[in-house]
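About this split. The held-out portion is used to measure sequence recovery: a designer receives only the structure tokens and must propose an amino acid at every position. Recovery is the fraction of positions where the proposal matches the reference. Here is one held-out target exactly as it appears in the evaluation file.
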């Protein structure tokens, strides 16, 4: 067997899975975890180290800081990701750009089956032919005038509440639909 590396294999192939993210994950479950941090003062106390010893006070301060940061993180996640609001889809209108095929069509069909009224903006007809609760409006979402015209049609038929941009192009519809939102309330 030869110990030479092949041309397509780098000499540091073992290091490819190593990353900053992996390093931080290991630190978060070891040195930066409160449980591990509290093991240090407990082990020092088991060695009969005095409470007034600077090393003991430093380790207790470090563990206390990590514990406070851990609970503040839990509180932050609780505040940021509270219980989701309940949505009655029968009262919702969802506007989906590029909803005639692909992911946009899937989103339209799912919300249509859930009872929402779905308005699809696309230059093509629905790939599946017809979907329950889905209205198709012919529109090129790259053209501001067409979007404004269709926004008024949708407002006349049903007022939009949610816009899902799945067309894969820059949608110039934000101004048209945000003005509908302001007028509605």
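Reference sequence for scoring:
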């Amino acid at each position: 067997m030869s110990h030479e590396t092949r041309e397509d294999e780098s000499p540091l192939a073992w290091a490819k899975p190593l990353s900053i993210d992996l390093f931080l994950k290991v630190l978060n479950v070891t040195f930066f975890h409160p449980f591990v941090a509290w093991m240090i003062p407990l082990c020092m106390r088991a060695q009969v180290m005095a409470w007034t010893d600077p090393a003991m006070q430093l380790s207790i301060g470090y563990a206390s800081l990590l514990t406070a940061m851990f609970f503040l993180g839990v509180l932050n996640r609780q505040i940021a990701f509270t219980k989701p609001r309940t949505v009655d889809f029968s009262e919702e209108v969802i506007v989906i750009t590029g909803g005639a095929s692909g992911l946009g069509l899937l989103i339209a069909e799912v919300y249509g089956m859930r009872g929402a009224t779905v308005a699809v903006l696309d230059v093509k007809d629905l790939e599946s032919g017809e979907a329950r609760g889905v209205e198709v409006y012919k529109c090129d979402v790259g053209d501001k005038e067409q979007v404004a015209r269709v926004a008024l049609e949708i407002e006349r038929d049903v007022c939009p509440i949610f816009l899902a941009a799945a067309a894969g192009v820059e949608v110039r519809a934000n101004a048209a639909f945000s003005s509908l939102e302001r007028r509605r309330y």
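Annotator remark: Residues 89-184 form a domain with the Rossmann fold fold (CATH 3.40.50.720).
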